[in-house]
Design a protein that fits this description.
Order of helices and strands: EHHEHEHEHEHEHHE
Shape: globular
Distance between the termini: 17 Å
Largest sheet: 7 strands, parallel
Length: about 200
C-alpha cells in the first residue's frame, strides 16, 4: 500500500504565499499539500511542483448546525457550491470540523440537525466522487462541542449516514488527549478513514 506524505500549512509558512509554500514542500520531499482553499492558482502551483492536493478545507460548517432553519438551508447550498468548485479543480477529500455555531448546543441536538442536513450534502459528495474527512478535534473550551471526536458519536453518525463518502480524519493526537484508545478507533472505523494526521 502506498501512502503520500504531506502537511497542513502552518500560518507562518503560509504567510510566505502559496507559490513559496509549494516550492518549499517539494524541496523537502513532500508529496501532498492540504490546502485551506482550492483555487486555479493553488492547483497550478501544486502541479508545477509535482505535488498532489490533499484535503481541502470547506467553509460554512458551523452554519449547518444553526438553530435557524433558513440559515441552515443557505449553508447547505453554499456547501454544495463549494463542493462542485473543488471537484471541478480536482480536489477529492474535504476536511471539516463539525463545530456548531452555538458552542453551548448539546451534542444530541447537533446530531439531530446533522441527520437532517447532511444526507443532501453526502448525496452531492457521492455524485461528485468527493470524500468528507471529519476532524476529531474536540472543539473550543469549555464546551468541546464537536461531533465526531469520540467513538460513540462516530458510531452514531456512521450508522445514520452509512455512505463511505462520509468518513473521518484519523488523528491519534486528539484521541490520546481525550483518553481514547486510538488503536481501537482505527480497528473499528478503519473503513471510514478518508485521511490521516500524524
Amino acid at each position: 500500500m502506498n501512502f503520500n506524505i504531506g502537511m497542513r500549512i502552518p500560518p507562518k509558512i503560509g504567510a510566505e504565499g502559496f507559490e513559496q509554500v509549494a516550492s518549499w514542500a517539494a524541496t523537502v520531499g513532500l508529496d501532498v499539500l492540504d490546502v485551506p482553499r482550492l483555487t486555479p492558482e493553488v492547483k497550478e502551483a501544486c502541479q508545477k511542483n509535482n505535488l498532489e492536493i490533499g484535503t481541502v478545507d470547506i467553509a460554512h460548517t458551523a452554519q449547518l448546525f444553526s438553530l435557524d432553519e433558513a440559515k441552515r438551508a443557505d449553508a447547505v447550498e453554499k456547501y454544495k457550491k463549494q463542493m462542485t468548485t473543488i471537484a471541478d479543480l480536482g480536489g477529492r477529500v474535504l476536511f471539516i470540523c463539525l463545530v456548531p455555531e452555538d458552542h453551548t448546543l448539546p451534542r444530541m441536538d447537533a446530531f439531530e440537525i446533522l441527520k437532517e442536513t447532511f444526507p443532501e450534502i453526502i448525496r452531492h459528495a457521492e455524485d461528485l466522487d468527493l470524500y468528507i474527512a471529519i476532524e476529531g478535534w474536540p472543539g473550543p473550551a469549555p464546551y468541546y462541542p464537536t461531533l465526531g471526536c469520540t467513538p460513540e458519536t462516530l458510531r452514531a453518525m456512521f450508522n445514520a449516514i452509512p455512505s463511505k463518502h462520509f468518513g473521518m480524519t484519523f488523528d491519534p493526537s486528539h484521541l490520546v488527549r481525550l483518553g481514547i484508545d486510538y488503536i481501537r478507533v482505527m480497528s473499528e472505523f478503519g473503513e471510514r478513514i478518508n485521511h490521516c494526521h500524524g
